[in-house]
Design a protein that fits this description.
The structure is a homodimer of 112-residue chains.
Chain A (H helix, E strand, L loop, with lengths): L4 E2 L12 E7 L3 E8 L15 E8 L2 E5 L6 E3 L3 E5 L5 E6 L5 E8 L5
Antiparallel strand pairs in A: 2-3, 3-9, 4-7, 4-9, 5-6, 5-8
């Protein structure tokens, strides 16, 4: 019996900095695992991405904010968001007590 | 605080048949949640898909076989596979005692 790759095995230690690993990289779609461990976006920093991003939090916890919303989104295991290209957002907080593992699917929508 | 959608909440009861739900559907990429509960592909049936599929098993257990391999792949939580377009495969078994939840990203690679 053949064993496949595992998304949760050999997680990097992200306490000293967020770690991204690519699981699929095609012209129109990229799948990444992002491991956070207490990181947040720098004060005043907003992500403003050319690609759309569908993101699923699998373990841990985070708070995310969109510039066009007054309130934070609170994310726990299973919570997902579809972030359109150039929708400005930032990570306000990730759990400092455990790894937060994200699955991110970056893609280019025809309208982008 | 705004709460996003959750991938694991309100799982469908799949005991009487596999259930697929779409979480993203763009021209070049689709994200689906597939819930199996004891199903297997019919005898002699092989999936032969026009799209490539990156699939991640999140809960439960399954056995999958590629026509071009002599052995089954045994899948548990976190195990993932990238199934190229038209690579024939079948699901030999999914756990009958619990839901098996898959995240499937269907995409069209330039080479397809």
């Amino acid at each position: 019996m053949t064993h496949p790759g595992n998304f949760f095995r050999d997680l990097p230690d992200a306490r000293s900095g967020e770690v991204s690993d690519s699981f699929l990289s095609e012209h129109i779609v990229r799948i990444e695992r992002i491991v956070s461990h207490g990181q947040a976006s720098p004060p005043g920093f907003w992500y403003d991405q050319d690609e759309a991003e569908w993101v699923l939090l699998l373990t841990g916890a985070a708070r995310l904010r969109f510039e066009d919303e007054g309130v934070e989104r609170v994310l726990g295991p299973g919570d997902y968001l579809d972030i359109k290209a150039h929708r400005r957002h930032r990570v306000e907080w990730t759990d400092p007590t455990q790894p937060t593992v994200w699955l991110a699917v970056f893609y280019r929508a025809p309208r982008d």
